[in-house]
Design a protein that fits this description.
By secondary structure, the protein is an all-beta fold. 0% of the residues lie in helices and 49% in strands. The N and C termini lie far apart (40 Å).
């Protein structure tokens, strides 16, 4: 029902910024909680980065990105964003956009129902 496509990844030096976008197809986008996860090189598991509820009044961030990353959404454009500032080499990962069928925020991979194919973010030191 929902197709997610990430974009905006790339190579950036430490201290730089990137803005990721996630375009969602389908008229049901407004019903979904949206999240960003990442999987670092050599890691077997994706980790939670940020999530935003149906209304942008509710957001949640991993401790490692608080104060540096900002998640937002434009429902009229079916798009979710992740603004990443002060990037560090530890942020290097494939970043995935995810959608949850229930309009509440969760942080666990297994609670999300739809996933994009990911976009690579590489931060050089």
């Amino acid at each position: 029902q929902v197709q997610l496509v990430e974009s905006g990844g790339g190579l950036v030096q430490a201290g730089g910024s990137l803005r990721l976008s996630c375009a969602a197809s389908g008229s049901t986008f407004i019903k979904y909680t949206m999240g960003w996860f990442r999987q670092a090189p050599g890691k077997e598991r994706r980790e939670f980065v940020a999530a935003v509820s149906l209304t942008t009044t509710s957001t949640r961030y991993a401790d490692s990105v608080k104060g540096r990353f900002t998640i937002s959404r434009e429902n009229a454009k079916n798009t979710v964003y992740l603004e990443m500032n002060s990037l560090q080499p530890e942020d290097t990962a494939v970043y995935y956009c995810a959608a949850r069928l229930t309009p509440t925020i969760t942080t666990r991979v297994e609670t999300y129902d739809y996933w994009g194919q990911g976009t690579q973010v590489t931060v050089s030191s």
